[in-house]
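ok trying again, last paste got cut off:
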Amino acid sequence: MKVSLNLSNFQYYSPKQITADRSAKTSLNSAGRNRNSINISCNYNNLINFTSNNFRTDKLEGLSCPFCEHMMLATSQAAEFVSFVEDLRGKDLIKALEKYENDKNISDCRSGKTIYRPIEQDIVEILKQLASKHQDANIKKLAVLGDQFLRLKKHKVPISASEDVQRWFQSAASKKTSSKNIAEKLISPSKITVEHLVPKSKKGGNAKSNFICDCSNCNAERDTLDFYTWMKKYPNLKENIEQQLEDIKQLIEKDQLPLCYRDYIKQVIGTIFKISKGELELDYPKQFDEFEENVDNIIQKRKEIVENLRQAQKDYKIEMQQNYQKIEELKQMEEKKAYTQELEELLESTYRLSEIVENNEEVLKNLRFFDSIKQSKFERITAEFY
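nice, full thing came through this time. structure:
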């Protein structure tokens, strides 16, 4: 909603732009060079975010990949991991690596799922072994040591280092790779990504109904393979996707996700049924009808809030017009008052000058009188003398 006011007679005040944000707060900002107009803009879409098409992964915490079944790190969790481990050394680094492997807030201890894949676990074990021997080494130094030991075949790590693990250490040991890069490289396969059910190369769109969450590793492995062929590799895919949708439903109920994901749950179930040729008929999450009813109530309340804000905006517009009219009246009154004061000062000055002139005339009159007396006296004395 945008309202524009044009105050053509208003000259003294700069225009203001008023914006209502998601929490219904208002902020005042300067609005351009035109001093004769005022723009009032209010974006209510942020308050009713259930219509948004944005599919965000930064808040999707605690989800497991429906394909490989490993736990995934949300964007915010991955950034936390990188900032946490890049400067740690020795025992502190070991604890940090173990934290992300065993933390109950990340891994599903009931099913034994972890965020580390088999190759990552091998890398972590090698880093832990080296960190226990080199207490002052950070993750960059440990990567260099690991590369040297693996190439020289002199390492005493009780894990067989595959070619993938050797390539990882070789890449991490590069001079151009920083500690931050190494931490990102270690955790990147576990990061949550948005997978297109129908690949974009096969005319798959960017609608929410075409999205599913999987790990970066599985996303890269699938590439552009069609979903029907890809799903044949995973016999537990139906149960895994249903569990992911249940987790998303719980995040919505906890108000950790926007309401737009309610529509996503229904839409993605239909998409998967279609592209799997009817073989994957997913069940809705538990108590989904009650959940939808609760969401509808929340949406209705938000609509009421929006209507109240719109009415308040109209009232504010009227009040603002009235205030500017009062300002204009006060401005005119001030101009009259200033004119009156200037006139009074001029009259007072004129009165003082008239008094001075009158006094000067009286003095001149007295001087003329004394001059006449002096003249007559002078004439009389002169007559007597002669």
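cool. Confidence is low (pLDDT under 50) at residues 1-52. Residues 22 and 46 are 5 Å apart (CA to CA).
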